[in-house]
Design brief:
Radius of gyration: 30 Å
Number of domains: 1
Number of helices: 6
Helix content: 10-25%
Number of strands: 23
Distance between the termini: 110 Å
Strand content: 25-35%
Structural class: alpha+beta
CATH superfamily: YerB-like
Mean pLDDT: 89
CATH class: Alpha Beta
């Protein structure tokens, strides 16, 4: 039998051990309680528009809308060009070019005049997973569009309904479509409008600060000897953007009178072939080739490649990084028609 004194000592020792264990457990629980984290600006996701690289406060799920826009002198000034993320300029018949204006970050209230489709417009529109809009088509483009190859709205089927004729211009230079009718047409046809295209590659702020290239003066893309069909670009050092000039006049938006201001001018050389008596062309948009990239008042001689249907510039084996903003892409039969002052 333990003595009374010894039993008391043992009891005190046990009580001490229990109290110590409880105390340590309390400390452990206190230490494992996570501290609330205060979100910082660094933690916020960086979101940008996929075709301009410009920052936005929320993700943009808008599908790209690609529209064939008329560039005949009687169609100028056009409506909605200032809001296009990218404009491709290609020859149609003769020396007259047409535009494929691609909208994603914003969609104008009114776009036009709208003109007929060609195969190469369809090819580029598909490359950006676009809803494609045109008024009319070449025979080969008609087969492709009516086959359901691409989601599309055409003025041949919707003249006077979704497409409206302007009274101040003569046909075929007076067909327009509104933002509301694009949405209405997509709903009627069951087309999805919330599938954004894959993003292009853009320069970071640090890369722009250290940007290098050969400084040059004004640029001319001479689709013809006639000034009516020469596309010129002049870089403004003050606002750091390119202005587009045609026939001696700065290209503006008919709806807002805002000038067309651009951050990237790209010229791609592609093989052109006349395919019929009407002077329609085929343009090889898959083989790649030489290209010129104009940014920040400077030039780079690079290449271009077809990437899943998109003709885009390549530099040192990788997609060329663009200055965040709007881009104008001229596709020409030869770089010899491009001139600039050093």
């Amino acid at each position: 039998m333990f003595s009374k004194k010894r039993r008391t000592c043992i009891l005190l020792l046990v009580i001490g051990l229990v109290l110590t264990a409880c105390g340590n457990k309390g400390k452990e629980e206190q230490q494992t309680v996570p501290k609330p984290e205060t979100p910082t600006e660094k933690d916020q996701p960086v979101v940008h528009y996929p075709l301009t690289g410009l920052l936005t406060d929320k993700a943009s799920n808008q599908r790209a809308i690609a529209v064939t826009v008329n560039n005949h002198p009687e169609a100028r000034p056009q409506s909605g060009l200032s809001q296009a993320d990218i404009v491709y300029e290609l020859l149609a018949e003769g020396s007259i070019t047409r535009f494929l204006a691609i909208y994603q970050s914003e969609l104008p209230e009114r776009i036009g005049p709208i003109r007929s489709s060609r195969d190469y417009f369809i090819d580029i529109a598909k490359g950006f997973q676009s809803l494609y809009i045109a008024h009319g088509y070449s025979p080969s483009a008609k087969k492709r569009l009516l086959s359901g190859e691409i989601d599309q709205l055409n003025g041949v089927q919707y003249d006077g309904t979704l497409f409206k004729r302007s009274s101040d211009r003569q046909a075929p230079h007076n067909s327009y479509i509104t933002q509301g009718n694009i949405v209405k047409g997509a709903e009627n046809e069951g087309y999805d409008l919330d599938t954004p295209p894959e993003s292009l590659d853009f320069l970071s702020d640090e890369e722009i600060e250290s940007f290098q290239g050969e400084p040059i003066g004004p640029i001319k893309v001479s689709y013809s000897k006639n000034d009516l069909y020469i596309s010129s670009y002049e870089y403004d050092q003050e606002n750091k953007k390119y202005a587009r000039i045609s026939n001696g006049e700065q290209t503006t938006d008919a709806e807002t009178n805002n000038p067309i201001l651009l951050d990237n001018i790209i010229v791609l050389e592609a093989e052109h072939q006349v395919m019929d008596e009407e002077g329609r062309r085929t343009i090889d948009l898959t083989s790649g080739g030489k290209a010129l990239l104009f940014q920040k008042g400077m030039i780079k001689e690079i290449d271009w490649k077809d990437v899943d249907g998109r003709p885009i510039p390549y530099e040192d084996g990788l997609p060329a990084k663009l200055v965040p903003g709007k881009s104008w892409i001229n596709i020409v039969p030869s770089l010899d028609i491009v001139s600039y002052n050093k």
